[in-house]
Design a protein that fits this description.
Rossmann fold; six-stranded antiparallel beta sheet; 15 strands; elongated; alpha/beta; 2 domains; Jelly Rolls; about 40% helix
């Protein structure tokens, strides 16, 4: 339990204590556990802190009435105490509304946001309003809260059956263990008053008309079958905040990070520049790896495929490359091998040898076709069509450091970040077109020489 300005906040923390903070903020009638599927992923790169908002979980309530601006103020104070730099906010439902309110009130504190089914208008679905509004009216008062608590304990099976369609998709794959824990948080004794206050606080904090003021890079994920925060709020995001990266997830309701966890993790990993594939999904990222990602992101700005990419996009792309170093004259890849990777020269040089009997030695059948310098790309044709390679790649006289991007990672990037994936494919095509034009120019020049 952490105490700041007399307000205690319970938090669950994972990751390196000296890293940038990723603050995970749960929604209405929840606790830190509502964000638990993302803790391992975020702890790879961040100091991930999942909190119990005041009045929820085991955090004591605010001294005054709960409201979204009050939560934003408390969390801004919390952030100021736990770190000396801007943070990444990851908010679900009401936690998404709180994150947006923080970005509006304290933009300097927020570097990026991931919002999952965020409340925008504050007006929940008709299903929720019909079931919950009468209960919340009772829970605002002590005796009513006692009545609700008693009745719900006696009718827990009925309320669960009524609430499940409002919260989860028909094809949801949430586990029974997770479902039981989330429902237990929603029924936690003694929290009827804060639940009622927050239900009406969301309505009072309608963010429509304000989203256009937010410059913070943001990923917004919504379940296609969300019957708690309706998709009409996603429409507000699309209309008012075109800079946000809005994703609609099939077969998910209001809890896509529990219902379609791999899809959501991949999208978040792509947005935050984390490894995206299952064999590395929860592997910790060392400080050296973070520094390398930043170095590669800077380098990509001057490469064949970095044109028109902003810093977050280059960082996401950099996280998908693998750096390899080769001594002078060594093989990077051989002709007639099936292609699965493209390569970008980062330092040194790479020589392309055609039909080499003795690679690296000029002869009757072996000749050097070209020498690639830093920033140049090769291997993209075989990678794209998975055909065999037509030449050997050798490290030049000074050796070579190359960045490799596999076909699987390229396809995954296109699926998880369509904007970046499309731009990347466009840049690859442009680089290929420039190379073909140069080759055609060389052939034309050769044909004009005397004796040809």
């Amino acid at each position: 339990m952490l105490a700041y300005d007399e307000q205690q906040i319970h938090a669950v923390e994972k990751g390196h204590p000296n890293r940038q903070v990723a603050l995970l903020i749960h929604g209405w009638s929840s606790s830190w556990y509502a964000m638990s599927p993302l803790l391992d992923l975020l702890s790879q790169r961040f100091r991930a802190i999942a909190i119990d908002l005041p009045g929820y979980g085991i955090s004591p309530p605010l001294s005054g009435r709960a409201s979204i601006p009050a939560y934003a103020d408390v969390l801004a104070n919390f952030v100021e105490r736990v770190t000396d730099g801007p943070v990444v906010l990851v908010g679900h439902s009401m936690g998404g509304m709180t994150s947006l309110t923080m970005a509006l009130r304290y933009p300097a504190l927020v570097e990026r946001m991931v919002l999952i089914g965020p409340t925008i208008s504050g007006r929940l679905s008709t299903h929720i309003n019909m079931l919950v509004s009468p209960i919340n009216m009772l829970e605002r008062f002590g005796l009513g809260s006692l009545i609700v608590s008693t009745v719900e304990r006696a009718m827990v099976g009925i309320t669960d059956r009524l609430m499940r369609p409002a919260s989860f998709a028909e094809r949801s794959v949430i586990t029974e263990q997770d479902y039981a824990r989330l429902r237990a948080d929603a029924r936690r004794p003694g929290q009827g008053k804060v639940r009622a206050e927050c239900f009406f606080a969301m309505r009072e904090n309608d963010l429509r008309g304000q989203l256009g003021q937010i410059d913070t890079p943001s990923l917004v994920v919504w379940g296609a079958e969300d019957n708690t925060v309706p998709l009409r709020d996603a429409g507000v995001v699309a209309d008012e905040w075109p800079a946000a990266d809005l994703r609609i997830v099939p077969k998910a309701g209001h809890w896509p990070h529990f219902e379609t966890p791999e899809t959501v993790r991949r999208q978040i990993a792509a947005f935050l520049g984390l490894p995206m594939f299952s064999n590395a999904l929860h592997a910790p990222i060392e400080d050296d790896d973070l520094m390398l990602t930043r170095e590669v992101a800077r380098f990509l700005a001057h490469s064949d495929i970095g044109d028109g990419l902003n810093v977050p996009q280059r960082t996401r792309l950099a996280a998908q490359f693998r750096q390899r170093k080769y001594p002078s004259g060594s093989h990077i890849v051989s002709a007639d091998e099936a292609g699965n990777e493209l390569y970008i020269v980062q330092s040194g040089s790479v020589e392309i040898w055609s039909e080499p009997d003795e690679p690296g030695h000029e002869g009757m059948s072996a000749h050097r076709v070209a020498t690639l310098r830093p920033g140049q790309m090769t291997g993209e044709l075989a990678m794209l069509d998975q055909g065999v390679r037509s030449a050997d790649l050798l490290a030049g006289p000074e050796g070579a450091t190359v960045l490799s991007l596999s076909r699987d990672r390229l396809l995954g990037l296109c699926e998880d970040d369509a904007v970046l994936g499309s731009r990347l494919l466009w840049n690859i095509a442009v680089a290929m077109a420039k190379r073909v034009r140069f080759i055609l120019w060389q052939l034309d020049r050769a044909s004009q020489r005397p004796g040809k």
